[in-house]
Amino acid sequence: MAIVLAPMEGLLDFVLRDILTRVGGIDRCVSEFIRVTNTLLPERAFVRVVPELLTGGRTLSGVPVRPQLLGSDPHCLADNAARVAGLGADGVDLNFGCPAKVVNRHGGGAALLEDPELLFQIVSAVRRAVPAHQVVSAKMRLGFHDDRRAEECALALEAGGAGEIVVHARTRADAYRPPAYWGRIADIAAVVRTPLVANGEIWNVQDAQACRAESGCHTLMLGRGIVSYPGLAHAIAQAAGQTAPTQVTDWPALHPHIASFWQLVRATLERRQQAGRLKQWLNFLRRHYPQAQLAYNALKAVNDVAVIDAWVAGLGVGKLNTNAV
Description:
Elements: E1 2-5, H1 14-23, E2 28-35, H2 43-49, E3 65-70, H3 74-85, E4 91-96, H4 101-104, H5 116-129, E5 135-141, H6 150-160, E6 164-168, H7 183-189, E7 196-199, H8 205-215, E8 219-222, H9 224-228, H10 232-239, H11 251-268, H12 271-285, H13 290-299, H14 305-316
Parallel strand pairs: 1-2, 1-8, 2-3, 3-4, 4-5, 5-6, 6-7, 7-8
Helix pairs in contact: 1-11, 3-5, 5-6, 11-12, 11-14, 12-13
């Protein structure tokens, strides 16, 4: 079994990838998408989204990060895939699952699931452009309006040369509404030989076990679930008997990771973005940790980074420093 950290635009950027891979249990990551239109992007465009390319394509804790490209032109995607592959990542991922209207309106993301022939052309072109030792993977949903062409799309990706296919077990029309239809991944597995990764609505160990049973997949991709519960990958591995029982991350154990997250945010993001990024993560964490709800309540109206500095300093000594606000 392996755990992959999902690409999530506006959430799972290099800062949170760094922190979650420090917590551990993650085998590899896929970056948020890099939009490719009609030009060959400069190297700095890839490094801006995936700064791990400057450290051998890995996070500082050594976990590989695979850049993800989003676009609809096979030749342009191929040129950009060759360039980013040359920067040292373990491979290139292709986005056929983004449900955003602005992306779909321009023929990208999940909209491509309406055209399996174009899927084939894109993957074929990228596979030819990327060195054979590097993986070309793809992330798809079950479909756009419905899931009737899910198997056809997966077969097109496989025929094009995809070495791994992540299936988010919902359609674009489903967006992020539960449930995820994990059983449909098993249907896809029945017609393709390419390794599949199951994704969607995995919030806890019980969800992971049910997803594995229904999908037949050994590899899971976690997104919002592990953002909400950073110890989730460890907990899944322990429940599967893959690791000896250890302390799964509780709230006090998370304190140094929140402090490190804030330090990275302060060092790398614009000042106007900083408070919002911490509150964004606390908003997710409160799903699992009651203490995060208290922290979120204390900080939700705060935009003064000096006040947040004081709150984080309180975390460092094991206290919930609500007096700082």
